[in-house]
Amino acid sequence: MTMEQPDNPQLTLLESVARQALTHWGIENAYTIELVKHRENAVYAVTRADGMKTAMRVHRLGYHSDAALRSELQWIGALRDGGVTTPEVIPTVDGDLLARVRIDEPCEEYQCDLLSWVDGVPLGSAEERSFSGDEAVRRTYLATGRLAARIHNHSAAWTLPTGFERHSWDADGCLGPGALWGLYGDLEDLTPEQLARFDEGAAHCLRVLEAFGKASDRYGLIHSDFVPDNLLDTGTDIVVLDFDDCGFGWHLWEIATAVFWHLGGESYSVALGSFVEGYREHRPLPDEHLALLPTFLLLRGLVYLGWIHTRRETETAEQILPFVLEETTRLCDELATESPSATREGVVRRRR
Q1: pLDDT tens digits for range 52-88
Q2: CA atoms within 13 A on the CB side of 310
Q3: Neighbour count for residue 160 (Cβ, 10 Å)
């Protein structure tokens, strides 16, 4: 993603927040700070005078409660303790996992946390649909499948801490009136014909999700953003980053997220086959479950359209819209087999 210009007032404000937040970790001078990512959160590389490098996250206002962010950080720490390679969560000097920084003008209070820095190369770029050749895709998605299975095994066995709070990527979280990323039906770019087609697709998804259910062999705590950008190849390991969207959801949602950006390309079959092969080395994935993957790919596409609507002003939304529209339409055409009248009342907030 192309970064905003350094004189952007919003980025100037966020850097000020990050600098104030660092005092909660005892970092007050003799350091450099550099913006490395600004999408949901602003992520800064912070390098101290002694060379220690960390990642400061300034969170998107209003996306998560303090309890939800602390829960995310608790799970990251538990995964790391359980042998899954994640960044290390660094507590404040007071022992908290989270710091709040108040800005008087405008009057806002930001949530910030600090993680260890991980050097590595992303497996690819979802936005640019940039991936390596087939052999590299096979190697990295084999490792990614293994990693996803280990994460799902961990969450199935882990006892949630008291007060643990994360959102759910279930039918309501994806397509309900309070959809976590917004509703596809609110995207102004859609024609009436596209909207009707996507309503049929949503109805199909809801029927499948209701029949599939939420048994522990298919649903649990997941990362939920296994895009190639969030998986770093360090040369010796695959490190998973960015648990900002982690929550409760179907394991197939995780797989759909991992391979969605390969749709329509020659790398899709290699990525999916390798992911499934790696996953099955550590956790069962029945064929009857895997047969539902096209439905979860469609669901992912519809949810991405909602994301595009609520982030319409961003370069990322503009960049991914054509691809998401094309692939979601194709999946709808392949999967919508029943009458759109079956759409559950209240699923789509009508614009017209």
Answers
A1: 999 999 999 988 999 999 999 999 999 999 999 999 9
A2: 16
A3: 14
Top CATH class of 122-342 equals alpha beta
* Cβ–Cβ < 8 Å for 250, 221: no
The CATH code of domain 9-117 reads 3.30.200.20
Question: What are the residue ranges spanned by the domains of the chain?
Answer: 9-117, 122-342
How much is the CA Rg of the chain, to the nearest whole Å? 20
Please answer whether residues 42 and 57 qualify as being in contact, where contact means their C-beta atoms are separated by less than 8 angstroms: yes
- Supply the angle between the helices 66-81 and 134-157 in degrees, to the nearest 10: 110
Closest CA to 260 of 311, 283, 294: 294
CA dist list (Å): 272 to 140, 204, 305: 11, 23, 23
Angle made by CA atoms 77, 307, 273, in degrees to the nearest 5: 65
CA 124 to chain centre: 15
Q: How far apart are CA 165 and CA 143, in angstroms?
A: 29
